[in-house]
Amino acid sequence: MSNGTIHAETWSQVPLAPPDSIFKLSAAYKDDTFPNKVNLGVGAYRDDDNKPWVLPVVKKATKILLEDPNLDHEYLPITGLPSYTTAAAKLILGEDSPAIASGRVSSAQTISGTGANHLGALFLSRFYQFNGDKKVYLSDPTWVNHFAIFRNVGIDPLTYPYYDPKTIGLAFGAFLDTLKSLPERSAVLLHACAHNPTGVDPSREQWGQICDVFLAKGHYAFFDCAYQGFASGDLDNDAWAVREFVRREVPLLVCQSFAKNAGLYGERVGALHIVAPTVETAGRVKSQLSVLTRSEISNPPAYGARIVSLILNNPELFDEWKRDIKTMAGRIIQMRKELYKLLTEELKTPGNWDHIINQIGMFSFTGISPDQSQALVEKAHVYLTQNGRISMAGLNSHNVRYFAESLDRAVRGDL
Ligand code: KET
């Protein structure tokens, strides 16, 4: 070391990492001064005036919370606010869930859906009896962060076929064949509903066949549920696949997020639910979730969980929330219809655009090439991920025409 001085680590070995592919779009959009710019990048709901929407039911719950004379800022228990985790488990697994009734669900409050994925992956990494090396199978494509989340805990992420670019739909045959060919007891990540980024979900009949293979092969289902309510506008409907797997006793866990369906993005409200085979196992699992959580975050943040707990445990607020979800899902469906109409009837954009109305949830996978996506970003000020995913929630009655026209030009190579 120079001058005989001993230096502490100076990070000369740290490589510069590229910015996050989704969040960099939000930043670029913010900096863009073009008046007609459109943000279709991050999956965050916007109202028809392109404003973030604080759900009316969240405003009500906040008021109740703030007026509560007993409100304090003490630590929550390590695995979270019990009134929240219990109600959250019921929301995804169902009021009459056999797993809840028999006390086999271990729940932990997490830092939103990302934290649930992380804790679930960490738990698997520590305790799952992998058949060989630690591997998880992810849909191709999937939410990009899944890869990093599993790598972080020493699980190698591999993919299974899911999407067929030719049909812009589910590659069901290849998906099922791959599930059958994986080693027994493989860990497989499934999107519970409103698949990100494709907007393509299996039908109930297809879920049934997927479930058959999971049972036959003893696979472990790692469900990620970040969009309950956003697929169909109905919370129970969107939880169907998870509940069916529980009913048929596939070993599984569920990662849950209230970022999107309650508009609580920044409050980081999530939960991990592990369904165990017996009450006794559930107790041991929960004890380990507690140990893992303690070392990472000590205990989760209280505010968002209190809001969601109020909403889930008060029948009036719960009904109001369901109406708010319908408002969001309904506006997105409306935008799908308008975009489809503009592309097919008015602009007569080359290609088939049926997938715009057939795909569900917050996203649409347009099927355009990375070059066309880039042209939209660079020349039309329309921000979307390179894979051609658009967040439908970023469209509204004011910008849908500009977007349709820009997409039309990109497809024709005129941008
Ligand atoms: N799972 C999926 C499938 C998902 O799309 C997201 C977020 C999450 C989990 C985590 O969300 P959280 O806010 O931690 O509850 N997706 C959007 C935002 C992001 O990338 O973080 C997105 O794809 O735009």
UniProtKB/TrEMBL annotation:
A Pfam family this chain is assigned to: Aminotran_1_2
Q: Name the GO terms of the biological process aspect.
A: aspartate biosynthetic process
* EC number(s) per entry: 2.6.1.1
Q: Give GO terms: molecular function aspect only.
A: L-aspartate:2-oxoglutarate aminotransferase activity; pyridoxal phosphate binding
CDD domains with a match to the protein in the record = AAT_like (cd00609)
- Name the coenzymes or cofactors required: pyridoxal 5'-phosphate
Which PROSITE patterns does UniProt cross-reference here? Answer: AA_TRANSFER_CLASS_1
Top EC class of this enzyme: transferase
Against InterPro entries, the record matches this protein to:
Aminotransferase_I/II_large, Asp_trans, NHTrfase_class1_PyrdxlP-BS, PyrdxlP-dep_Trfase, PyrdxlP-dep_Trfase_major, PyrdxlP-dep_Trfase_small
Q: Which reaction does it catalyse?
A: L-aspartate + 2-oxoglutarate = oxaloacetate + L-glutamate
Q: Which residues form the Aminotransferase class I/classII large domain?
A: 36-407
What keyword terms does UniProt attach to this protein? Aminotransferase, Pyridoxal phosphate, Transferase
Pull one GO CC term from this UniProt entry: cytosol
Miscellaneous note of the record: In eukaryotes there are cytoplasmic, mitochondrial and chloroplastic isozymes.
Family, as annotated = Belongs to the class-I pyridoxal-phosphate-dependent aminotransferase family.
Spell out the subunit comment: Homodimer.
Q: Which PANTHER family match?
A: ASPARTATE AMINOTRANSFERASE, GLUTAMATE OXALOACETATE TRANSAMINASE 1, ISOFORM B
Q: Could you tell me what this protein is called?
A: Aspartate aminotransferase
Organism of origin is Phlebiopsis gigantea (strain 11061_1 CR5-6)
